[in-house]
Write the structure tokens for this entry.
Amino acid sequence: LVMELISRAGKSFTMYGRDLSKTAEFGVGKRNYNSSAGQAFWIDNIGDQRRHTTLSDVTEATRLGDALEQITIPGAMSDPLEIPLKWRCIQVALEMIKNRFC
């Protein structure tokens, strides 16, 4: 049954941004470039000690990823330790929504 349902499932799909001209298409032979998410540590300059990431790092990473045309799906690139774990993902998502340009 599972294999039959998989064989009937769609083989391509499109994700749309708030700006509908910005899309991520899957299964159509195109590449999508995503920034990674959830780094616990950042290094600000070569040779510096690594540090725990913060919510302001989420803001900076979101703005950077959103400004780069090559990035199809921006990620938070930060897992801010100062936010309690039980609602960290919600705060990160909110910060990303607040700081998108499109």
